[in-house]
Design goal:
Blueprint lengths: L10 H16 L11 H18 L2 H6 L11 H13 L4 H12 L5 H18 L7 H17 L4 H15 L6 E6 L2 H18 L3 E6 L1 H10 L4 E7 L3 H9 L3 E7 L5 E7 H6 L12 H7 L8 E4 L6 H12 L6 E4 L4 H14 L5 E4 L10 E3 L7 H5 L10 E7 L2 H4 L1 H8 L5 H13 L5 H11 L9 H12 L3
Parallel strand pairs: 1-2, 6-7
Antiparallel strand pairs: 3-10, 4-10, 5-8, 5-9
Length: about 475
Amino acid sequence: MLGRKSTKKYAIVGALLTILALAAMACSSSPAVPAVDEAQLSQIVSNAVAKSQQQITAAEIQTMIDAAASESVTAADIKAAVGAATSDAVTAADIKAAVGAATSDAVTAADVQSAIDQAVKEAQASTASKSLTAADIKSAVDAAVLQFASNSLTADEIQAILDEALAAGQPTKSTIVFSDLNWTSAQVQNRIAQYIVEKGYGYPTDTIFGGTLPNFQGLQQGDIDVALEIWLPNQSIGWEKAVELGEVVSVGTSLVGDWQSTFVIPQYLADEYPDLKTPQDLAKPEFQELFSADDSRGKARYIACVPSWSCNGVNLAQIDTYGLTDFLDVISPGSQDLMFAELNSAYDKKEPWLGYMWGTGDPALKLDLVRLEEPEYTKECWDTDKGCAFAESLVLVAVNQSLLPRAPDVIAMLQNWEFTITIYKGIFQWMDANPGSEPSEAAIWFLNNNNVWEDWVTTDAAAAVKAALANES
């Protein structure tokens, strides 16, 4: 149906001829009235064309499929035809070409005017012995225009039908699952990426909540598609093995230059106790007493990172290498929030605190902290006893290999992902000023108040995201 050419474009002409002829015959029994002169006829034609253009503009006619002009072709017919085409894997480009071909010879305003002229002439010729009034011809022309308008579709209606049918014919995009690691920066990054992927690229998304170790296993196995924070060197051994097996692929980086340390103290303690410089100093009696607590059995109370994070193993290895196992009472908090609460509470009271922290951990973004001095990082050290400082962190954006062919557009976005420490500090400051705000709310704030993310995505995706943001309450 969509391929019919201009052989059907004169359906309008036929309708006009028929209606005008009937009007002329109906006038044969009317009383004699003045015939239509040339000037009146010209004005009638002009009025008719003008009226037809109000109801069916030249632009609309030219963008219609010629079949839509026929009384027998309905919106349902066109929708069914396009649906059938798309079910046979015809692309949007194919449909566009077909519509273009069909409309290249479509009915124009000039065709309508020519048809009216011809109809009037033939009607006059067939009723040479009768007289037609201006009112007779105008009524007939009006009826023809109204008939055409009532049985046709506007350009917008045709476009809506095509869009709906084409969308129905597109393959369903599979859900992209993000690693929802149990700390703030990872969750904020996820919510930003999810919003862009959903609103800008049309993929549904989901998350799996968990710690570093279980979620990395999920990434390897394909239960998780995207991890926006793979921390190296913490996860070096597991990461390198997964890469060798072809299970995971690095597509970018985030939080470039972040730091972490097993041995961190508040600046006010470093100022008060200048002799406390290295981890080994913690074995001295004065520092055992400084950091001891009622339940620490005379040892220095130490706050390690969360047990499900890879840094927990690093903390324990370094404590052992530095000979501190018998001098530290290690507390492994069950969550990020508990870890942060320990430090924030001690800092507010200017009390002693010793533990693990990293540069984009919430307290480190607003408190004055100091890292104890350790030997400089080397790969040999790290691969053996870890008796050295963490390397400057390399935080990878990684995907399961199965995502590469499934969502190449999303992969391209992740390759452009540049979520820096500066960006995150701005988001953290907003969250800190809005207590109780969720990562999803922080993501909306970021997208609305920064344009750096537009460099990560296509022009179309950026426009779609902005349109969605405009509808957020």
